[in-house]
Amino acid sequence: MGTACERHAWVLLAVGGALGFLGVAVGAFGAHALKDTLGEDPARLGWYQTASHYHLVHALAVLAAGLSAANRPRLRTAEGPAAAGEPAASSHPMKGRGCLLAAGWLWALGVVVFSGSLYTMALLDLRWLGAVTPVGGVLFLLGWGSFITGAIRVTLHRP
User: Fold this and answer.
1) Which end of the chain has fewer CB atoms < 10 Å from its terminal CB, N or C?
2) In Å, how far from its chain's centre is CA 81?
3) Phi/psi at 42 (nearest 5 deg)?
């Protein structure tokens, strides 16, 4: 299937797909089955909606990271396009892809911590979990920083 980086990218795509599937299911559950329960407390409803929003946004971001890391364009050499299986002209053809993969995993973990803590707070009214939620937010931010770094590195190392 290719390099370890490519295999990790495909796993990340599956994780992103699963997060998207769960995000839609959990969002629909909240909108329909929990409407009466959460509607009584505007704070709990807001937590659930915020969790669902960030969950779906970052599911798409995980997919973008996986696609970006899996993308292996045919790079040009002095003699023309690289042939299948031939090393690319760049001495670091995978440079930056580790950062893209790290971004995807940071976002996936961020969904679990950030959205998971908000979903739990909303459903069980465990307000002390509000102290955990910012950790998920930091994971989201680290993911965005890693994605930016990876995008720059991939761009700079293309011939």
Assistant:
1) N
2) 32
3) -60, -30
Q: Residue 77: enclosing H or E segment and its boundaries?
A: strand 76-77
Q: Find all residues with CB under 8 Å of 135, minimum gap 6, and list them.
A: 113, 114
**C-beta separation of 55 from 19 below 8 A:** yes
Partners of 80 in beta bridges: 77
Q: How far apart are the first and last CA of the chain?
A: 24
78 — pLDDT class (breaks 50, 70, 90): very low
Cα separation, 42 vs 40, whole angstroms: 6
- Residue 32 CB neighbours (<10 A): 9
How far CA 91 is from CA of 56, 77, 96, 152, in Å, comes to 37, 12, 13, 16
pTM over 0.85: no
Decide: 65 and 147 in contact? Cβ < 8 Å.
yes
